[in-house]
Each structure stands twice: as structure tokens, then as C-alpha cells.
Amino acid sequence: ETGVTQSPTHLIKTRGQQVTLRCSSQSGHNTVSWYQQALGQGPQFIFQYYREEENGRGNFPPRFSGLQFPNYSSELNVNALELDDSALYLCASSLEGIRNTEAFFGQGTRLTVV
Amino acid sequence: AQSVTQLDSQVPVFEEAPVELRCNYSSSVSVYLFWYVQYPNQGLQLLLKYLSGSTLVKGINGFEAEFNKSQTSFHLRKPSVHISDTAEYFCAVRNSGNTPLVFGKGTRLSVIA
């Protein structure tokens, strides 16, 4: 077990709705990254937060947004949901700086958009 | 831009046989390389990583990988697989510094009794 927890584990939403996914990072980690994994594909980078600031973004539209809180937990928000947003959303935490660690992943949130 | 190619989408292998899962990457700078495993309905678990030093890296569950800079490859091997190794395996690359992982599309390893 990595110590990275995500909630909820499963979620069903209707097209056009908004969703918030949550991630609690491993103790001592200051960086959180979010990935989208469509069925049968590898994870795709959405964005990354380092010390509460977004410091990298993948090829995702602005309706994908996020936050990182002072305790380094994080949220992923998706507005105006589309059917193609159905995927497993993975959160990863790491320690970046003088001493770096590898990314530790949570169990993921399975989002289904109908 | 970095990219990762996993040459086999599916690899069936009999129990106790050896296996190799292939991974090639493209990058113009020094990279860190990783293999992750994903069991059904689970997140990603790190098997092993190459950051620097010895090109032969040993990981958990008896897996190992060899970094070959000239061939830009990082193939994963296990000398004898078990039924419990059945899972999806992902190769990933990142630059040094605070940069995200770039994943391949994955290889589904199916171990047959």
C-alpha cells in the first residue's frame, strides 16, 4: 500500500455535469500529479501541482482543473463532462526537490459518463 | 518530446517459462526509466526503476530490467513466471527534475497454467 488514497473509488455522472475527484498524498510528499487512463490505454498526464502551484500540464482542455491544498492533498475538477471523459483517473504523489522520490499511485477513481 | 513504445500489446506465456516485455523510448536528454504493474481494478505499483549507475536493475517479484542507452531500450525480464504475474505492465520515462511520467500503452501479460 502506497499511502496515496483517492475518493470516490467509482462514480457515475451524466454528460454535461461536473465532477470533483480527491486525492490524499503520501505523508511528506509535496507534488501531486493526475493522470487519465482510458480503457486499454496507458495513463496520460493531465497536470501536476507542486507546493500548491500548477507546474505542468498535458494536452487537456481548460475544463479540467485542479487544486492542491496546504496539506498537499489535491482535487481534480472536470466541468461539462463528455462521454470520452469516462476513464480511470489516477493520482500520484512524490517528493520533489533536493531529494526526489518516484511517484506513488493511488488506486484510482473509475468515472463513467453516461 | 518523449515517447515510449511497448512493442507487444499482449504476451501469453506458460507458467514457469521465462518472459521478456519490450520497451523502447525516445528522448533527447538523460532520462529516468520505470516499469509499473497494474492488476485488475487497481492503481499502478512500481516494479523497478533506473535512475543512474548499473544498467541492470533488479525489482520486486523477481523482475529485472536492463537499460541499453545505444538501443534506447529498457526491456523487462523474469526467468520464471507465476500465475500471479498475470497483469498489465507499463513502461514509463521522465526527465530529471520535477517532470511528469510518459507511459507506453502497456503490455498484457497472461500466464497460462
Give the structural class of chain A. mainly beta
Low-confidence stretches of chain B: none
From the spread of the alpha carbons, the general shape of chain A counts as globular
The number of distinct helices of chain A, counting runs of at least 4 residues, comes to 0
Q: Helical region count of chain B? A: 0
Radius of gyration of chain B: 13 Å
The SSE string of chain A, one letter per element, is: EEEEEEEEEEE
Distance between the termini of chain B: 41 Å
Computed Rg of chain A: 13 Å
What summary fits the major beta sheet of chain B? 6 strands, mixed
N-to-C CA distance of chain A: 32 Å
Helix/strand/pairing class of chain B, anyone?
Answer: mainly beta
Helical fraction of chain B: under 10%
Regarding quaternary structure, how should these chains be classified? heterodimer
Q: Unreliable stretches of chain A, pLDDT < 50, 5 or more residues?
A: none
Tally of extended strands of chain A? 11
Percent helix range of chain A: under 10%
Kindly state the mean pLDDT of chain B as a whole number? Answer: 93
Largest binding interface between chains: A-B, 29 and 21 residues
Describe this protein's structure.
With 114 residues, chain A is mainly β. Chain A has no helices and 11 strands. In chain A, strands 2, 4, 5, 6, 9, 10 and 11 form a 7-stranded mixed beta sheet that branches. Chain A has a 4-stranded antiparallel beta sheet with strand order 1-3-8-7, with no helix packed on it. In chain A, a hairpin with a 5-residue loop joins strand 7 (64-68) and strand 8. The mean pLDDT of chain A is 92. Chain B is mostly beta strands and 113 residues long. Helix content of chain B is 0%, strand content 52%. Chain B has strands at 3-5, 10-14, 19-21, 24-26, 31-38, 45-50, 56-58, 64-68, 73-78, 87-95, 102-103, 107-112. In chain B, strands 2, 5, 6, 10, 11 and 12 form a 6-stranded mixed beta sheet that branches. A 4-stranded antiparallel beta sheet of chain B has the order 3-9-8-7, with no helix packed on it. Chain B has a two-stranded antiparallel sheet with strand order 1-4. In chain B, strand 10 and strand 11 form a beta hairpin. Chain B starts with a strand and ends with a strand. The model of chain B has no long low-confidence stretch (mean pLDDT 93). Classes of the chains: A mainly beta (114), B mainly beta (113). The interface between A and B is medium-sized, with 29 and 21 residues.
